[in-house]
Amino acid sequence: MKRAALLLLGPVGIIALAHCLTWGFGSDADAHTPSVPVATPTKVDDTESTQPAADVAKRQQSTNPSGDLLTRRCEQRAVHVSRQLGKDAKTLIRAPFVLASPMSRADLEQLYNDVIHPTTQALQTAYFDRLPDEPITLVVFSREARYREYAQRVDRRPMTGYYGYYLRDERRVVINLATGHGTLAHELTHALSHFDFAKMPEWFDEGLASLHEECEFTTDGLKLLGLPNWRLAQLRQALENGRMLTLTAFTTSPQVRIEEKGIDYAHGRYLCLYLQSRGVLGDFYRKYRTNYATDPYGHRSLCQVLHVNDLDAVQAMFLDWIDEQ
Ligand SMILES: [Zn+2]
Fold first, then answer.
1. Rounded to two decimals, what is the model's pTM?
2. Do 299 and 305 touch, CB atoms closer than 8 A?
3. How far is the CA of 179 from the centre of ligand 1 (A)?
C-alpha cells in the first residue's frame, strides 16, 4: 500500500522563510557546542515548515517498564496544556505524545493515525534507538489566528513564524496545520532525536529535521524519503555568491549562522539528502551518535560511510552532486 506523500512546504514556505529570517529565527536559543556539547537547555525552533506517525505507543508501553509512569506523566501534561488552551481544548494521549487542540478529538485521532504514528515509526526505524521516556506535547491548530493567539498569550511570541515552533526544554511543539503537515515532521524529528542523540550538533539537527519537511513514504510504508525542495535554489545562489561555508567550517561551527540561517538550513538539508542518495544517511547518523565523544564533528564518520580518506573528498563529491541536481 502506497502512502500519500507528506510534508509539503512549497511556495508558502518561501514566504515563511522570508518571514522567519526577519522575525522568527532570531529567537532561536540553541546552545550547541562542538567540543563540549551539552544537552541544549532552551531550544526554540522555528521552522519554515513541514508536516508528517498508534500501536507504537502501546508497543512502547508494553516493552517499557516505565510505561505506566510515562502514561501518568502524559496525563499530567494533558491537564496542564488543556488549561493553557482554554475551555474548548481537546486532548488525546498516545504515549509518549500528548496532543492538544481546539480541533475535535476525531481530527486529533486522524492526525495521530495518519501522520504522527507512521512518521514516528519510520523515524525510529531509520535513526532512533532510544525511545522517549518523557511526554512530548503537540499543540496543534487548524487556523492561523488561533495559533498566533496561543503563541502570543502562552509563549510571549507575538512575531513567531507562520508554521510552528518547538520549545526543547518543555518538549512542546506548537503547530499551525493551516500551512500543511511539513512543520510537524520537522519538529517531530527534533523532538525524537533529542532523546536519542542529545548532543547532536545544530547543523545536523536542523539538516535532518529539514529533510523531513518534504518527504514521502516508501511503497511499503516503512521508511521516509526526503525529497528535493525549494531550499536547493537558495543553496545554489549561496554557492555562486560565496555565502555557503566549506564543509569543514560548516560542520565545526557551534551553531548555524543567525544571519545566514536559511543558507545553513539548506546546506544541512542537502547534505542529508546527498547521504540519503548514497544510501548511508542512517548509517552516518548511528555511527556519528555512537562515536560522538571521539568524532565530535562527524568528520571520521562521514569519511567512513562514504569510503574516502578526508573531508575534502566528501566536499568534492557533495558539490558535484549538487551540480547534477
Ligand atoms: Zn528545526
1. 0.81
2. no
3. 16
